[in-house]
Amino acid sequence: MKLVVTTTLSKIDMNEFLAEFLIETNLPFIAREDRSIVSIQEDYRADGVIVWNREGPVLYIKGEKFFYHPSMAKTRISFFRQTGTNDPLINALGLRNNDKLLDCTLGLGADATVASYFNPSAQVVALESSSPIAWIVKWGMKLYNSKMEWLNEAIHRIEVINSEHLAYFKLLPDSSFDIVYFDPMFRKPLLKSTAISPLRLLANHNPLTPSSIEEACRIARRRVVVKEVAGSEEFDQLGINTFISSPNNKITYGIIDL
C-alpha cells in the first residue's frame, strides 16, 4: 500500500511531531500547494493520503476517512462514572495493581483505553499489525487533548507497537505479561458505523489460530482473554471453554486461567 503525507490547506508548518511521524513511518512528504487530496493521490499514484492536522493524522483512502477518536472508550468510561457499573472487559481481564497487559489487537484503542482508565497503575501495551492503523491511532492518541483529564491520562498511558502478534511473541521470554488479550475483527459486524467502516478496510482479518493461543499462554503469567460474538464457534476451534458474558449478551469473553 502506497501512502503519502501532506498538510492541510491552512499550511501547517513542519513541526517536531510531523517530522517525527515522517521519520517513524518513512513515508514521503508532499507539499500541499493548494492541491486537492484527490489531485495529490493521482499525481503520486498513491493508494491513500495522510493529511497532518494539529489534532493528529487523518488518512483518506478509497472514499473513506480514518482518524483517531476515543468515542466508544469515552462512552464506556462515562457510563461507569455516572452509574458505577463496571465495564464487562474489566471483569474479564481481572486486572490487578501494577499488572502488565498486552492488547494484541489495538484497532481504535477503546479496550486499551478502558483498561488503562480502570487500572492507572497497570502497564498497557497494544499491538497493531496494520501499519496505517498503528500510525494513525498512535499519533492520534499522542496528540489527543480534551477537557476531560481523566480521559487524556488513560489514553496517554498506552504504548502502541506496530507488530503482528505472533512476531512480537517470539521476541518475548516466558511470562512477560500478566494478561494477554485478543479482540479479533468480527466476521459479521454487530454495528454499522462510519467510524468502524474505514477500520474494517484497513484491519487484519486473519482469524486467531491455536498456535496464537499457545504462544499467548506461554508469555502470560495469569490469564489469556479472547473477545468474540456470543455463540461464536471460534472458541471451540481455539480450545476455550470458560466464558464471561456481557449484560447485553452480544459479546462473550473466553477465559484461559494459567
- Radius of gyration from CA coordinates: 19 Å
Beta-strand content estimate? 15-25%
Largest sheet: 7 strands, mixed
Unreliable spans: 186-190
**Helix/sheet category:** alpha/beta
Please give the alpha-carbon distance between the first and last residues. Answer: 40 Å
Could you characterize the architecture of this molecule?
This protein is of the alpha/beta class. Helix content is 36%, strand content 24%. It is built from 11 helices and 11 strands. The protein has helices at 16-25, 37-43, 71-83, 88-93, 110-118, 131-143, 149-156, 165-169, 196-202, 210-219, 234-238, and strands at 3-7, 48-53, 56-61, 64-67, 100-103, 123-128, 159-162, 177-182, 220-229, 243-245, 251-257. The protein has a 7-stranded mixed β-sheet with strand order 7-6-5-8-9-11-10. A 4-stranded mixed β-sheet has the order 1-2-3-4, sandwiched between helices. The longest helix has 13 residues, at 71-83. The chain is globular and about 55 Å long. The termini are far apart. 37% of the residues are buried.
What descriptors fit this protein?
11 strands; alpha/beta; 36% helix; 24% strand; 11 helices; 258 residues
Short description:
This protein is an alpha/beta fold and 258 residues long. The protein has eleven helices and eleven strands. It is globular.
